[in-house]
């Protein structure tokens, strides 16, 4: 298991994941990021198409950049 970081970016907004989440691999991190997007959109206030979730690995390298696109 390795730490992955899930940062939310938008127009001037950024929310950095400082703690990280342990995941077994990149594919699991991608699936988790999609779940975060779905849950945030369902909770409301996260419907701006400019929002993106950046997934970084333990080395801090961006491995995915996933937009909050409509369903």
Folded structure, characterized:
The longest helix is centred in the middle third of the chain and has 18 residues, at 26-43. Helices cover 25% and strands 34% of the residues. It is α+β, with helices and mostly antiparallel strands and 71 residues long. Strands 1, 2, 3, 4 and 5 form a 5-stranded antiparallel β-sheet that branches. It has one domain (2-67). It has one helix at 26-43; strands spanning 2-9, 14-15, 21-23, 52-56, 62-67.
Question: Which tags fit this structure?
Answer:
71 residues, alpha+beta, 5 strands
Question: What's the layout of helices and strands?
Answer:
Blueprint lengths: L1 E8 L4 E2 L5 E3 L2 H18 L8 E5 L5 E6 L4
Antiparallel strand pairs: 1-2, 1-3, 1-4, 4-5
> Strand content of the residues, in percent?
25-35%
Tally of individual helices: 1
Distance between the termini: 30 Å
Low-confidence stretches: none
Largest β-sheet summary: 5 strands, antiparallel
Helix proportion range? 25-40%
Shape: globular
**Mean pLDDT level:** 90
Number of strands: 5
Computed CA radius of gyration, to the nearest angstrom: 12 Å
- Derived structural class: alpha+beta
Number of domains: 1
């Amino acid at each position: 298991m390795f730490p992955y970081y899930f940062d939310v970016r938008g127009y001037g907004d950024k929310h950095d994941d400082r703690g990280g989440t342990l995941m077994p691999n990149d594919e699991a991190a991608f699936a988790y990021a999609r779940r975060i997007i779905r849950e945030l959109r369902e909770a409301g206030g996260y419907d701006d198409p400019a929002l993106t979730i950046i997934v970084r690995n333990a080395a801090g390298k961006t491995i995915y950049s996933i937009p909050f696109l409509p369903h």
